[in-house]
Amino acid sequence: MASDDLSLGRAFAVLLGVSSPVIIFAGYRAYRTGRLARGWRRLRVWALGGVTTLEEALGYSCAMCGGSFDAREEVRTLSCDHVFHRCKGDKCKHVIDDWLRENRVACPVCRKVALPVLPWKAPPTSAPSASDLEDPLVRQAPAPPASSSGSEEPQLPLSTMASGEEPPL
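The line above is the sequence of RING-type domain-containing protein; the predicted structure tokens follow.
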């Protein structure tokens, strides 16, 4: 019984010793040739979702090429509600999937980071308005009220505020 365990352990050690360098070499080669990065970029674009086949023509145009959307055409809707052609054709030579693979994952129109879209989200019925494109997280702070005495409160340096210490009174 003990010799069976010993031979099983040796067999496992030999298998591990032979397969580890092969796996490491294949991974290094994929990294050097760029296949690994291309695969991750393709997976990243696939994971965004938002691909639908139109049942009827949309009343506005592609945000990238300006071409119209026809029925039974495959489109990709990004999280910012911009809609793009997904397949190359006579109307559109530059499609959104190529843009997202070659560049960072951001909308080419508004430069917002493209987040994953739920699979059942349909393209919007109308083009996004300017107010829809505003980032709700980036708003200007309201101006501080003007003091009637004319004296301003001293501003604390950021290092004092960031350290968590109590400001001097």
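Note on the example: The helical segments are 2-33, 35-48, 96-102, 130-133, 158-162. Confidence is low (pLDDT under 50) at residues 130-148, 150-169.
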